[in-house]
Amino acid sequence: MKKHLKYLHRDVSWMYFNHRILQEALKDNVPLLERLSFLGIYSNNLDEFFRVRVASISRIAECEDKAAHDEQEQAHTLLRKINQLNNRYAKEYGQAVATVTEQLRREHICLVDDTQIDDEQRRFVHDFFRRELAGHLAPIWLENISRFDGEADDCIYLAVKMSREGVKRNYHALLALPVSRVGRFVRLPDRDGCSYLMYLDDVVRSCLPLLFPGLHFDHYEAYSFKFTRDAEMEIDNDLRNGLLQKISKGVKSRRTGLPLRLVYDGAMPAGLLRRVMNKLDTDRLDTALAGGRYQNHRDLMSFPDCGRCDLKYAPWPSILRRELAGETSLFDLIRQKDRYLHVPYHSFDSYIRLLQEAAIHPAVKSVRTTLYRLAKDSKVIKALVCAARNGKHVTVVIELLARFDEASNISWSKRMQDAGINVIFGVEGLKVHSKITHIGFKSGQSIACISTGNFHEGNARSYTDFLLMTAHRGITADVDRVFRFIKRPYAPTKYHELLVSPNEMKKKFIRLIDAEIRNHKAGLPAYIKMKVNHVTDPVMVDKLYEAAAAGVPVDLLVRGNCSLVCDQPQLGGRLRVVGIIDRYLEHSRIYIFCSGGQEQCFIGSADWMPRNLDYRVEVVTPVYDPDIRAELHRVVDYGLRDTTQGRRVDGIGTDLPLSQEPDAVPFRSQEALYNHYKADNEKTPEA
What we know:
By secondary structure, this protein is of the alpha/beta class. The chain is 37% helix and 20% strand. Strands 14, 18, 19, 20, 21, 23, 24, 25 and 26 form a nine-stranded mixed β-sheet that branches. Strands 10, 11, 12, 13, 15, 16, 17 and 22 form an eight-stranded mixed β-sheet that branches. Strand 5 and strand 6 (194-199) form a beta hairpin. It starts with 9 loop residues before the first helix and ends in a 5-residue tail after the last helix.
């Protein structure tokens, strides 16, 4: 019987990953305001994790089906592990916030609360309250509601306790802070060379008497809390409703999802805490965690810089590639040879230009693309609308089930339909996650763009992604077949160049790994190098174990979930996983197989998770151009030797920095890549 090696559950591995983000906030070599941002990212990630993953695990744990007893036990064990790690990391987080806040004070950026301001500052705060806040605060008496039904879980709340001298009765109110309207931080007038800021929470605390006029309270207490709901949507199965209507109803259902987690000010009196928990239906509550004075630290991502650019990363302006920025048609350049972009090092504007050229070029017949997430003021949509108005046949496949972007995608879908664009809402039962664009010409020729990430201007400023633009006949023909499959799903489709899931991608990746094992045994060169976001598919995890155990060097860059446990004797030290967290979010997916010396390189949208390989429409393309293949190698090799931001992901949560390894030489991969692309662009003539 085959002995299975260790497999780390994806949700435990995610907790380890988020902990690595927290550790960035404690590094002295990270600029101070960037450390604040990492604290915000950690908090935001944790909220989404509880809303989605912990929600799913909790459903299994609470299942009343006796046949699911084993699954229930596993779910309970997993919840205990998650909560154990969460409690441990919460203490580190609190210490990190205190440390960074104190260091800000040393840099003359002072966060003050309502007890620390003088009369002049208090007058400013009260004036701000009257001008900006008063109309957006709507207190609700806790005694008047039975539970929190309509309250959103993306807010910070104050539980307010009020009393009058000589009267035994206390009064309690609920306040939702209008962060989305006025921001989380209020900047007070500078003085004596110092910048002063207050949390919005403290501004409201300072102005509570102004909020309850005429009620003659003489004592106020206010304690912050936030809660997390189950974010899984209840999709209406009524066949009379269209998919658009079903998703719209599902988005609304999130507001009434069951609470899963409460984080509250640990100083909140026990009686007030019980009142809050009663309104949250504590029978269903999995986690109640006492925290500090402030919740929702995700707002630290937008902390005012107070003009202190020296406390942030030095700017790296995106590079507009000169070879793609001249007067020569992009179509002609792509027909000459494959072209690429590596955003955000390179400007995403070159892809926008490709769409704009397609919109006005008389030889273009059709434009088809897949959209998963969209920027608020999307240039992509503007170019597609322009193409439709110029008589091109424009088709957009938009994924309505892109988590937390459903409402935005619904709105964009309606606008595109109004402009005459043919909008397809994905494939029933399969989420369309591929990132592909196809431009068809009246001559029958075509050009395709295949990306590792969304066609999204916002993401392209902070996510590292590769875009391949090609006129390769086999690849463009396969991209056309993908769009046909989406239009008429489940029809038998044969792809000749692309790896497409859920069709043959997984089988082809397995064959590529098997070939490396055979080549090594035959004495031929063999290795596997990959850069992905997640590796959790049990079959692929086992195949990587098998390759390493057989003697094949396996080097992986994995940003997030990783179910591999590297320190196992059978692997002989040949399995290495490195995780990089830096100013850009590592997002591109790159696959390199030695193939006996005839190397094969691929890029695409798919991670190695069951959802990507089995339940989504994903596209991975081979890369044939030698110059682009060299760049892919550079990206992976630089990442594997990143001693500044890289950590050895071991599968047990230790994740030691590469800087602690013997003979480590300081090297930061993102900085090296930016400098490389900048120097390369300066010596490239404009086309």
